[in-house]
Amino acid sequence: MTQWSISEYHNFCNTLKSMWLRVSFDLVFDIEIPTPFILMLRPRSGAQQWVARESYKIEPNIQAYEYTDAFGNLCQRVIAPSGLFSIQTEAEIKTATYVDEAPDAPFVEIQNLPDTVLSYLLPSRFCESDRFSDLANAITANALPGYNQVVAIESWLCNTISYIPGSSDYAISAIEVNNKQCGVCRDLAHLGIALCRSLSIPARLVVGYLHNLEPMDMHAWFEAFVGGRWYIFDATQSGKKGGYVSIGYGRDAADVPLFNQYGPAVYPIKHLVKVEQIAKEN
Amino acid sequence: MTQWSISEYHNFCNTLKSMWLRVSFDLVFDIEIPTPFILMLRPRSGAQQWVARESYKIEPNIQAYEYTDAFGNLCQRVIAPSGLFSIQTEAEIKTATYVDEAPDAPFVEIQNLPDTVLSYLLPSRFCESDRFSDLANAITANALPGYNQVVAIESWLCNTISYIPGSSDYAISAIEVNNKQCGVCRDLAHLGIALCRSLSIPARLVVGYLHNLEPMDMHAWFEAFVGGRWYIFDATQSGKKGGYVSIGYGRDAADVPLFNQYGPAVYPIKHLVKVEQIAKEN
Amino acid sequence: MTQWSISEYHNFCNTLKSMWLRVSFDLVFDIEIPTPFILMLRPRSGAQQWVARESYKIEPNIQAYEYTDAFGNLCQRVIAPSGLFSIQTEAEIKTATYVDEAPDAPFVEIQNLPDTVLSYLLPSRFCESDRFSDLANAITANALPGYNQVVAIESWLCNTISYIPGSSDYAISAIEVNNKQCGVCRDLAHLGIALCRSLSIPARLVVGYLHNLEPMDMHAWFEAFVGGRWYIFDATQSGKKGGYVSIGYGRDAADVPLFNQYGPAVYPIKHLVKVEQIAKEN
Amino acid sequence: MTQWSISEYHNFCNTLKSMWLRVSFDLVFDIEIPTPFILMLRPRSGAQQWVARESYKIEPNIQAYEYTDAFGNLCQRVIAPSGLFSIQTEAEIKTATYVDEAPDAPFVEIQNLPDTVLSYLLPSRFCESDRFSDLANAITANALPGYNQVVAIESWLCNTISYIPGSSDYAISAIEVNNKQCGVCRDLAHLGIALCRSLSIPARLVVGYLHNLEPMDMHAWFEAFVGGRWYIFDATQSGKKGGYVSIGYGRDAADVPLFNQYGPAVYPIKHLVKVEQIAKEN
């Protein structure tokens, strides 16, 4: 009989194999009028990853302020002055070589879910889970409740929704994704989340880096809570996956913006993401 | 020169006139199979109201468990057994006779908003604020940024969207409300919230009781953060308003369900709301 | 093999027998100059108890404001005007007829403790756990690590420290209690907590009501975290115990004042506690 | 008329002059048996400082897990294996060249304190503020309530308690410090905190780095909440001070350990702190 670990701490300790990644993100804007930004670009150590080295450079060298949002993400507040405004972040992080899998891990009854997980059952801006029961039931008709249902959803997404990196300028919702039958990584994740929640499986969006992503860019995937813990799912990748580095968690993309900018819209004139494996013992 | 109070505590102390209300809610279900519920039916004392007496009766007398969600709302978790399942809540509460008004209270710049208020700027399930900039700008074209903009939005809702109590079975989003041009209290609030947020004014949904509501039922309205604090707005009522008792706050109705029920849908066979003024000194 | 439950929610559901209590507390002060108070007199529903009915009456009918402290306790802030100032609280609460016991429940290794429990390992104002290693080791020399160690501490307190209700005007620390070899309920609890923590067992103070306490008054006891959850211990009572109603939790009495008053000291001119069993089905 | 800023965010923006520091801490233990540690060695960006670059190296390369405690401090949990165990932390941080001063900033009435500040009024393990009223009143007899009282306390500490770096192996309490009339930085801070709290001024301990500290080591100082915000005080330094980098905040040293180690005591065989100013524009 398999025993499902219950503590995030344990998850990490049980991870057999890990790898070291150096991740970086360069972002440059050309600002016309002073513009308030809220950025979410700082990975933090947690159950699934360890940040050993990190830098965060803002130019010009303006005042910045950091706070933690309700999901535990580190957010930076700045007012970008007019002119070139750049952010360079870099980190060295240990993460799992392969994501944990748990075939047959059971569905967790609502009454047994931790309080903090309950909000991930609710519909959200881009995941209208209140409208997906029929589809979710059809997709998972033959799956054991729990982990296997989420695998069925992930496979369905993989086979049904075309993954077209760079195909979307702004976030669209799960309903819209399902209508278009194609989308970026974020869109597939949103639809996966909506389907999970409609089956009363808590699900959340994760934004971050992925080793060997093609083409390289920031990435988004989702996690589902089954068998007593969160598991990573990503319908944009096939085969055994690993090398995920998370920056932020939330109910959907509305909660996890890499940057939110207020006032007249500005767009990055540079947006460069790098992920490379580095040698460290372990 | 008006000075905007900055503390919720102060808000309450400055309230000149208050009234006492006895509110109650009876809810009965006929349950077929044991059904997990998460209820949000317990008002709590805060800056705007004081709960002097409260009862919460569940029949049959099953185990119940209470927790506080991320918005500070009290939530009750139970598993309703098959058969009749009833909840009776009653409370005696002091609240303001008239809601505070603050003509000309200024817009709060993003960089000056408290961290905890920032999440109320984001789009949410039923408030797609990312799609309402043009409409919001048109509605508020002549208003001073801040409180007066929200008044303009409230007036526009009042004049444009028909308030039809009981007209909706399930929550629809601000876009859908704007298309239908009519809705229940919750729908008008959602559209008001979406419009505020699209102007970078934080806005949240409130669910609770309202004295003299016609027809009497649970009610929903919205609050906007201007001039350094939250103010109540309600496009379904005209004239000077008061007698509000809040039960829960959230980004929209997804966060503030009176009850969330899991498994095959069950509907209340009784749903009775009462609000009456009672005599207490003060 | 015994399985230790891991969820506070489960604790409650597994409780086989419970009783209903009506508890009340009347407190009256004669105030000379306006005096700020922070009160902690409001029990809340949680894993171990369910509050079905509650009232909280303040006279004169001044403004009051409620907030939740870092331990999850409900606190009320008021400024008492000069003259008579009274608080009457009453609640009907379901609680366990007998507290849970768990002989042999294991010591939880530091690395396996939940994050939120770690602060209950630290020394605090009235529990100088950094000075009690030798004594704690002597007392528990023959006990299995975990629950049985706490039972050994509870027995040692019961046999060594004379419990003299009403013998202390202000809180003294565990070192002082151990020197005096006598104390009130709070003092015995403080010493028990200091001994537990010195063995790396998380322990916390609880303040509340106890059915059949002699003489009747507010009460204090402690909880220790072993076998994956909190268990109640109370060296002032013998035999199988039950009928506990908690009002507040904290590291020690400094965190859990029934009232904290600022400015020139005032003392209650009335202080009346009642606990009676009432009949309800279950 | 001076206007007291109310937002921590503003505090930072108003800081006129800042400097860049590179701080580092090397810590090595020789471990006999596997030993759980909780470390607090990671500065974070906040209102008073900005972390631009940071590294945290643990050898051997064991699993580590990070969480945020109730005070917002980043804590790392590890189990050190037997053998040499080393931690090297380094950070580049922007901080104020001179700490803010605010002569005559007023005492904040209890009823106007933010909820989150109230716990810093309570006595704690090493700050028995419940026993210092008379001394505090004597020391501050001629001072305007608020900032000036804290300055009087700081001056009294400076003149009365000999600051002897390295003179103490383990933490002693404010009462003990006052009896000995000498102490390390932490001891002076504890006595300062106890005196402030006995006057109903919230005060907290800060642990971190200080530029030009002699002899260089980790440092401790205190902050008091007057005039609507926290101000730094440090009785071990004279003249205009600056160059503070905080790692952790708490009620006293019990809350802010650089490391807490469980099981048989181990002592660092290396403990090396460096702080140097580096050139960056601004």
TrEMBL record, chains A, B, C, D:
Transmembrane segments: none annotated. The lineage of its organism: Bacteria, Pseudomonadati, Bacteroidota, Flavobacteriia, Flavobacteriales. This is Transglutaminase domain-containing protein. SUPFAM superfamilies: Cysteine proteinases. SMART domains: TGc. Residues 177-237 form the Transglutaminase-like domain. Coiled coil: none annotated.
